[in-house]
Amino acid sequence: MWAQLFEQLINGLVQGGIYALIAVGYTMVYGIIQLINFAHGEIYMFGAYFGLILITVFHIPFWFALPLAMVLCALLGMLIDYVAYRPLRNAPRLSALITAIGISLALQNIARIIWSARPKNYPPDELPSLFVSGISMTGEVINAIPLPGGGTLPYRDVFILLIAVVLMILLNLLIYYTRIGKAMRACAQNATAANLMGINANRVIIATFAIGSALGAVAGVMVGLSENVTPNMGYYKGVAAFAAAVLGGIGSVTGAIVGGLLIGIAEAFGADLHSGYRIAFAYIIMILVILIRPTGLFGKATSKRA
Amino acid sequence: MKDKLTPRNIILCVVICSLPWFLFGIDEISSLLKQYKISFGWPGGDYVLRIIVRACLYMLLAIGLNIVCGFTGLLDLGYVVFYLIGGYTAGILMALLGVHYWIALPLAMAHASAWGLLRGIPTLRLTGDYFAIVTFGFAELFVRIVKNEDWLTGGDPNGLLLGIPAPRIPFTEFSFNDNWHNYYHIIILLALVIFVTYRLQNSRVGRAWVAIREDEQAAESMGINVGRYKSLAFAVSAAIGGIGGAFIAQFQSTISASLFEFWESIFILCMVVLGGMGSIRGAMLGAVILGSLGEILRLALNNYPKFAGSRYLIFGLILVLLMRFRPSGLMYRKK
Questions:
Q1: For B189, how many CA atoms within 13 A lie in the half-sphere containing its CB?
Q2: Which residues in chain B are closer than 8 Å to A94, comparing Cβ atoms?
Q3: Residue A97 neighbours by CB under 8 Å, 6+ apart
Q4: Contact criterion met (CB < 8 Å) for A109 and B148
Q5: CA A106, CA B320: separation in Å to the nearest integer?
Q6: Using one digit for the tens of pLDDT, what is the confidence trace for A11-53?
Q7: Interface with B, mutate which of A81, A287, A302 (most B CBs under 10 A)
Q8: Which of A47, B42, B146, B332 qualifies as a FRET site for A15, CA 20 to 30 Å off?
Q9: String of b and e for B192-203 (b: at least 16 CB within 10 Å)?
C-alpha cells in the first residue's frame, strides 16, 4: 500500500517535472505580454518531433540532438512571435488570443501533414543505453533502481527529473542574476516604464519566447523517451501545463514549477482512482483555482486585468 | 437591419425555401447530361442537401455563440458543451427512454440552458482570458464525462449513442426521415432563433448587453444589472446550443463524444469571428462560408489523402489572417 503510494508519488514528480518545463513557457509569456500562448503546447510537440527527426533521420547522437532541438524550437517560438503576435501588440487582447488559437490549430495540422497522425517512438537502439530500461531474460532489472514493493524507477525518469531541476535552477539564475533577466522582470512589472528606461521591449519579448520554447523542447524530447509522439500530444499536455501555470499563479516562474509538480502528483494519484478521468483532474484544479483564487498560489494580487 | 416583413424579406424567405428544388433541378440536368456523356462533377442533390442542412445547423450555433461572444464580449471557448448537452439529452430521452422528439427538444433546450446558468453564475466576475479558460475546461470535463460514463449513454464506449429515432408528427404516421424534411425542420428552427435573437438585440436587453461589452463599469453605473443580463445571455446562448444538439441527434441518428471535441468549439468561434463579432448576419455568413468550405475542401482534398485532414490548418490560418488584417470581420455592424 505505502510502496504503491510511493511509486505513484515518484511517477507524479516525473510527470510534474515535465509539466513544470512546459508551464514556465506559458507563465513567462503571460507575465510580459498578458497573452495565453495557446501555441506553446504545439511548440512542445514540435520539440518532440525535432528530436525524433534529428535522431532517426540525421542519426545525430542524443546528447547533441537535445540542444539542437532546443535551438530549433527557440527559432520556431521567435518566428511565431515575429509573424503573428508582434503586429497585434497594440490590438485588443481578444485578437491576440484568437490568433494564438489559430496558430496552435495551424501548427498541429502542419505536423499532421508532415509526420502523419500515426504515433511514433524514439527508437531504443538509437538512444543512449542508459535510457533503455526493462527486465532482462534472467529477470534482472536493467537501468532502473528497484523500489520497495517490487516497482522500479528507470534511470530515464531520474534523468528527466534531474534535468528539470537543473534547468529550473538555471532559469532562476538567468532571471535574477543577468541583464536580460532584469529586463524581463522590468517589462513584466511595467512595460511602458521599462521602455522609457531604454529597455527594448521587443527584444525582451522575443528572448522570452526563445527561452520558453527551448524549455518546451526539452519537455518534448523527455516525453518522447517514454511515450508516443503524436501531433495532438501538445494539446493534452499543454492544457495540463497551463493548469499548472494557473495553479501556481500565472506570471510567476516559481509558481509554475510548484504548480507543475502539484498537477503531476494530483494526476498520478487521480489516474489511480479512475484512469479515464486522468486529464480531468487538471481541468478541475484549474477551474477551481480560477474561481476561488485567480492569482494562484504565488501570484501577486494585481489590479484588475481584463 | 430592421426586422420587418418587408417585400425584400418575404422574397428572401421564398428563395431560401425553394433553394432545394433548384438542387433537384441540377440533379435532373446532371443525369440528363450524363446520357450525352457530359458530366460536370455534380456530387448529387441529396449530398448537397445534407451539406446545406449542416450549414444551417452551424448558422444556428454561430448565432447562439454570437450572443455571448459578440453581444456581451466574453470569449467562450467551450460553446460546444451546450451542443453536447442538448444532443445527449435529446438522444438519451429518445433512444433509451422512448420520449417523443417534440418533448425532448424543449427538455434539451432547458437542460442546456440550466447548465449555461450554472456555468455562468460562478464566472460572472471573470473577464477576458480567465473566462475563456474556464469555459474551455468546463467543456472538456463534459467530454470526459460522456466518454467515461457509459451507463448513462447506453453502454457503448466513447459515448456512442445509436438508434435515435426520427421525429414523428403526433397522431400521424409522418416521420422526418428524409433530407428534405430535415431541411425544412432546420429552416424553421433557424427562423425562430433568428427572430428571437433579432428581437432581443433590438430591445432593452440587447442594448444592455452591448453596454456591458463596451464598458462593464460604465454600464453598471448607469443602472444596468450586469449580473442579471450576463446570466440571461448565457442562458439564451446555451438554449440555442441545446436546440442544435437535439437537431443533430435526430438528424444523424447516432452521436458520439468525438462530435463535440474542443476543435468544434473553435470551428464555431471561427465562423463568428469571420463574419464579425456582434452581428447576426455576420455569424450566418461566416457559418455558410466555413460550413460549406469544410465540405468543399473535403471533396477537393479527397484525391490527396496526405492532406485530407488539413481542413483545420486552413481554419487556423483564417483566424490568424483575419485578426491581422480585418479584426472586425467581414460584416461588421456599425455603431
A1: 30
A2: 73, 75, 128
A3: A35, A36, A38, B75, B129, B132
A4: no
A5: 9
A6: 889 999 999 999 999 999 988 888 888 899 999 999 999 999 9
A7: A287
A8: B146
A9: ebbeebbebbee
State how far the Cα of A285 lies from the Cα of A243, in Å rounded to an integer: 7
The H or E element that residue B8 is part of is: helix B7-35
Contacts for A42 with CB less than 8 Å, ≥ 6 apart: A103, A104, A107, A108, A111, A234, A238
Whether A290 and A247 have beta carbons less than 8 Å apart is answered as: no
* CB-based contact B226:B212 (threshold 8 Å): yes
Complex-level ipTM: 0.82
- Give B75's contacts in chain A (Cβ within 8 Å): 94, 97-98
Instruction: State the best of B130, B153, B272 to mutate against chain A, taking most chain A CBs within 10 Å.
Output: B130
The minimum CA-CA distance between B118 and chain A, rounded to whole Å, is: 13
Structural domain count, chain B: 1
| Runs of H (alpha helix) within A139-277 | 155-177, 179-189, 191-196, 201-226, 233-248, 253-273
d(CA A194, CA A190): 6
DSSP structure string for B214-257: H-HHHHHHTT--HHHHHHHHHHHHHHHHHHHHHHHHHHHS-B-G
- Cα four-point dihedral sign A234, A96, B55, B257: positive
User: What CATH number does residue B129 fall under?
Assistant: 1.10.3470
Domains, chain A, in order of start with CATH, read: 2-125+151-292 (1.10.3470)
Q: Which residue of B has its CA nearest to A85?
A: B324
Give the tens place of pLDDT for each residue, B47-81: 778 888 888 999 999 999 999 988 888 888 899 99
Task: Report how far residue B270's alpha carbon sits from residue B296's, in angstroms, rounded to the nearest whole number.
Answer: 17
Distance from C-alpha of B54 to C-alpha of B69, rounded to nearest angstrom? 22
Rounded (10°) CA dihedral A281, A283, A285, A289:
180
pLDDT of residue B178: 79
Domain annotation covers residue B5: no
List of chain B residues with pLDDT < 70 = 1-7, 9, 17-21, 23-24, 37-45, 303, 305-309, 332-335
Domain that holds residue B117: 45-325
Handedness of CA B129, B130, B135, B138 (dihedral sign): positive
The continuous run of DSSP H or E covering A145 comes out as strand A144-146
Strand A141-142 to strand A144-146: parallel, antiparallel, or no bridges (unpaired)? unpaired
Separation of alpha carbons B213 and A42, rounded Å: 31
Q: For residues B76 and B238, is the Cβ–Cβ distance under 8 A?
A: no
Q: What is the pLDDT of residues A126-138, one digit of tens each?
A: 787 777 766 666 6
Main-chain dihedrals φ then ψ at residue A120, nearest 5 degrees: -120, 160
Residues in chain A with CB shorter than 8 Å from the CB of B138 are 287
Nearest by CB to residue A99, choosing from B136, B312, B323, is B323
